[in-house]
Predict the 3D structure of the following.
Amino acid sequence: MLNADGSVQRIAGGMSAPEGIVVQADGRILVGEQGRNRVVAIDPQTHVVTLWHAFPNRTGRDGLDGIGPVLPDRDASGNLLATGGNVIVPDSPNGVVWRVTADGKTATQIATGMVRPVGAAVDTTGRIFVADEGGALWVLAPARLRFATLPTPDDVLVGRAGHIFVNTLGDNAIHELDAKGHQVSVITGIQQPQGIALDYADNLYYTEFNTGRIDRVIRTFILDTPTVTRTTRGTYIICPVVHRASGFTGSLGLQTGSSTKTAILQLVQPGTDSSGALEVQTSEPSVTISVSAPDNLGLTQTVALTP
């Protein structure tokens, strides 16, 4: 576990080839053990490790790989979902996918007939995407359909704007697909992209296994260190530093929370060629600012204030 100060804390050990990891709403950490084809749960406070769910593996092949996602509690309209909190588990050696209740007690098989499912993701409509190392990206809607044919998919993500990202080991690439499966872009020449992630602005991060590198693709915008000026009146003028990706023209919104200790005196919204600014009066040592964009994109930043 990475602490706030950057130090690393060991919270569990003794696992057999731990692979996938996901965190539940209550803070429990679920880890897939490839060596035992099971998922264990780690208590976030006591760090006690318990069996969450085991999947028989009589195939002689490597056990499960990635686990997750945790299914959302509500749909796009805000309605409660019966499957909220359930966890999707691709059972890699057996070629099936399970939906497991949050307590790990009940597993429902939701797809079969795959070669080696290794990763899954869900979009806002409830469709589940499964990366299959056999050369397919499947969509469960709820029936299993081939969404795309790709060389050795390793994992899959769904962005906040609805696009699907798949890292593929067969061609050392990351493919971006739209909601209908059409390829939007592809990043090639990556030295074995074993891991991919998206931030809350849909910027892409990926690992290069063979080179030991972590790379970032700025797809929308990022926030650099802001400038902070203390005025003679005792207020603070905060100027965010926003860097837009080439071609990204979406409107941005700047905001911060007010409280009994923090008052917003002025607020200038970012423009197409500016980052905006705000003036606050506060006794707090820091404030949090947020920059949002269309498609539910946004980044937050904690800004330290010098007395």
Notes: DSSP finds no helices and 25 strands in the chain.
